[in-house]
Write a structure and sequence with these properties.
Distance between the termini of chain A: 13 Å
Number of domains of chain A: 1
Largest interface: A-B, 34 and 34 residues
Strand content of chain A: 25-35%
Oligomer: homodimer
Low-confidence stretches of chain A: none
Largest sheet of chain A: 8 strands, mixed
Mean pLDDT of chain A: 95
Structural class of chain A: alpha/beta
CATH topology of chain A: Dihydrofolate Reductase, subunit A
Helix content of chain A: 10-25%
Number of strands of chain A: 11
CATH class of chain A: Alpha Beta
CATH superfamily of chain A: Dihydrofolate Reductase, subunit A
């Protein structure tokens, strides 16, 4: 399989991607210090992505943003139950209850070369299944103490290869790691 | 109070300072990739430290290392119960059950200008008490999934100021943050 699956996400220094209720007010607040036009590589990353895979929670949170931010990018929402996709985005958003390995195989066979895996639980599931290729984590200079963690329990250690780190003048630190594939 | 209290510690990318049983085999393994003579700033940091403050767990783990690594540096072990300090290190190691604020005040009045706060629980207690000045965290490129976390719950967000980040060729990423003192 040559399809890559990447994580591109921001966390607090203590490893949370949102508060327990999903709130990212702390991230919005931190982003006010980011100069106009600086996106910490997000747009360049998105340009390499064919399909976004996210969990139901993330999807429902994105819907609350009002405007759908992914334009005509293909999005797969993981959900075991049915899920109502609003009319305006039905052309690009599908719902899947496939086993992750089969989902990745299908998307790969359909030509997808690069998946963007988003949302805490979805990231953890991909990681546990050994399906992630790399992680780009942007650490925000704040401690929350509690929230939804980026990482969860895993069966065994996952050794990473550090690829690059960039510290921004506004205090964000972005590191990219490659995940060794199981032999 | 002008006495600084610093954290200088290594964590896995998922924020653990040791496995649940205190084992740091993963850190020892990662350190085999570090070139001879490279200590990621530890010696330079230690030269600025007057007193090391650690918890009982950390103390007992350090004792298992065989040779006492802190030479003639003053060490305070936090323990509410009594604690037997081995003969060889009684000149420099004391045990304290003081409230942290009072401990810091006393050490300060005795001339200490820089405390090195070590051990997960002790770090969390200092952080909760608003007594930490800065954090130097060296992130090791591995996910453990479980273990003793560096950070724990806190009463409210702690906003940090990013001071510097250094990425090493062997994959460690060290970031230093200042903690804003409560007004």
């Amino acid at each position: 399989m040559t399809t890559k699956a990447s994580v591109f996400i921001a966390t607090s220094l203590d490893g949370f991607i949102s508060r327990l209720d999903g709130n990212i007010d702390w991230l919005d607040q931190a982003n006010t210090a980011v100069p106009n036009g600086e996106d910490c590589g997000y747009k360049a990353f998105m340009e390499t992505v064919d399909v976004i895979v996210m969990g139901r929670n993330t999807f429902e949170q994105v819907l609350t943003f009002g405007e759908w931010p992914y334009e005509d990018k293909q999005v797969v929402v993981l959900s075991r139950k049915g899920l109502v996709v609003p009319d305006g985005i039905r052309k690009t958003v599908s719902v899947s209850s496939e086993v992750l390995e089969l989902l990745v195989e299908r998307l790969s066979s359909e030509g997808a070369q690069h998946l963007y895996v988003d949302g805490g639980q979805t990231i953890q599931s991909f990681l546990s299944a050994g399906l992630l290729s790399d992680l780009t984590i942007t650490v925000i200079p704040i401690l929350l103490g509690t929230g939804k963690p980026l990482f969860g329990s895993i069966k065994s250690d996952v050794v990473l290869t550090h690829l690059s780190t960039q510290a921004y003048t506004f205090g964000f630190v972005q590191s990219k790691y490659r995940i060794a594939k199981d032999a």
